[in-house]
Design a protein that fits this description.
about 375 residues, mainly alpha, 2 domains, about 55% helix, about 0% strand, binds 2-acetamido-2-deoxy-beta-D-glucopyranose, At1g61900-like, SPARK, SPARK domain-containing protein, signal
């Protein structure tokens, strides 16, 4: 393949790098201060205008200076096909069936950017992989988790395969990840048939089969269904097995948290990898505690127009003009747009606007980001 700048656009890594750089500049308010994006500057994420990257300060130890930021194959990147992983031979799973998840996780956790994006991108993806792996491994055996011995072997194989695909080898440290993340040991209920007896699975699947990023963050549907199922199986298990996992105690809290893993594993078994992964990433995106880079000033115009005795047209006009003004400040990524929508939603809620005004006014995620205008 020709090694011109054009070849970058096929590179997943390059594409991803661009996403991350844009994410980083959002965090640093750099774009808002130094670059004004005009509509004529319209660009696709895979096609950044030259010069966009100048103001960004990133430690050279992390990203060595590269005079051509769109050149993908600088020597710092591993040659993905250069070695085969060393496997234990004791993890009996067909990894080719998981190749979508392995590839996605490796690229989300690639050297050398994983440490920078651990909380927001890499670890949520690793966590999702663990759940999808549990389901793939246990599904044929009426179980939703691995036993300790299989977990040890599979954990090692997963890390080797990820590393062979270019992922950072520090994932266990970065993400506090251990083989026990594959066992969910303190959840008392692990087999599929008891799970289906105890949990209203149609309700769970209805809530989580298609998770809408904006709605889920403002008015969660899937997350409460998962928690409800997890609490149910953790306490149900306690009474059945006479264990000490009394809700509220430390053991009880661990059990609920491990049982959430079991619920995730069940969802992974019932949904396609792509759908399950998207759902899990949205759920963790809602939790990510990154501030929204937009500056929200006094929303009283919206509060007034959308409070009691409001009419829909005047409320929506006020809301749309408020959001349009925010949107012009800075380029935000989808993840930030989620944070922004959530933050503004809770701001309005505190100010007494109770209705689902995003739904009422047809506001969606892209309305919070500049892409929406282009
Ligand atoms: C990666 O390594 C393989 C085998 O060593 C080689 O054939 C291939 O050309 C390399 N790819 C790149 C992009 O350097
Ligand atoms: C593993 O899965 C792949 C893709 O689904 C399939 O082509 C292959 O035959 C499977 N291998 C084994 C040993 O089952
Ligand atoms: C693994 O489990 C631990 C608790 O045992 C948890 O703190 C951590 O977040 C989990 N890691 C991932 C990536 O899910
Ligand atoms: C399936 O369950 C049996 C009986 O519990 C166990 O011996 C076997 O190792 C399990 N298989 C896998 C792949 O976990
Ligand atoms: C499961 O939940 C649905 C609502 O989502 C309800 O209609 C149904 O009756 C429930 N089934 C059981 C067995 O509780």
């Amino acid at each position: 393949m020709e090694r011109g700048s054009g070849s970058c656009f096929q590179g997943v890594l390059c594409h991803w790098l661009v996403l991350v750089l844009i994410w980083l500049c959002g965090c640093q308010h750099v774009l808002s201060q130094q670059t004004t994006l005009e509509p004529k500057d319209k660009f696709l994420l895979s096609d950044p205008p030259i010069g966009l990257f100048d103001p960004i300060e990133i430690s050279p130890s992390v990203l060595p200076h590269n005079t051509n930021p769109v050149e993908p194959l600088s020597p710092m990147y591993p040659n993905y096909t250069s070695y085969d992983p060393v496997l234990t031979g004791k993890c009996h799973v067909n990894f080719s069936k998981l190749s979508f998840m392995m590839d996605k996780t490796a690229s989300d956790c690639s050297v050398p950017l994983a440490p920078l994006v651990a909380d927001v991108i890499c670890c949520p993806q690793v966590s999702s992989l663990m759940n999808i792996f549990q389901a793939a491994y246990g599904g044929g055996n009426n179980t939703l988790v691995l036993n300790q011995a299989s977990a040890n072997a599979c954990f090692s194989d997963i890390m080797s395969i990820l590393a062979s695909k270019g992922a950072n080898t520090n994932i266990p440290e970065l993400c506090t990840l251990r083989p026990s993340n594959l066992t969910d040991a303190s959840c008392p209920m692990k087999d599929i048939s008891s799970f289906e007896r105890m949990v209203n699975v149609s309700k769970l699947l209805d809530a989580c089969s298609s998770v809408d990023p904006l709605k889920e963050c403002c008015r969660p549907v899937c997350q409460p269904a998962i928690v409800e199922a997890a609490v149910h199986i953790s306490s149900g298990g306690a009474s059945m097995f006479g264990s000490s996992s009394i809700p509220g105690s430390a053991a009880g809290i661990n059990a609920v948290s491990d049982c959430k893993g079991v619920v995730h594993s069940y969802l992974s078994m019932k949904l396609s990898s792509e759908v399950a992964n998207t759902a899990f990433r949205v759920l963790s995106g809602c939790k990510v505690n990154k501030v929204c880079p937009l500056e929200f000033d006094d929303p009283s115009s919206v509060v007034k127009a959308c409070g009691k005795a409001s009419t829909r047209p005047s409320c929506c006009a006020a809301l749309q003009s408020y959001i349009a003004a925010r949107q012009k400040q800075i380029f935000v990524t989808n993840l930030q747009a989620i944070n922004c929508a959530t933050m503004f939603g809770s701001m309005l809620q505190k100010a007494g606007v109770g209705n689902d005004i995003y739904g009422l006014c047809d506001i969606d995620l892209k309305d919070f980001s500049l892409q929406g205008m282009l």
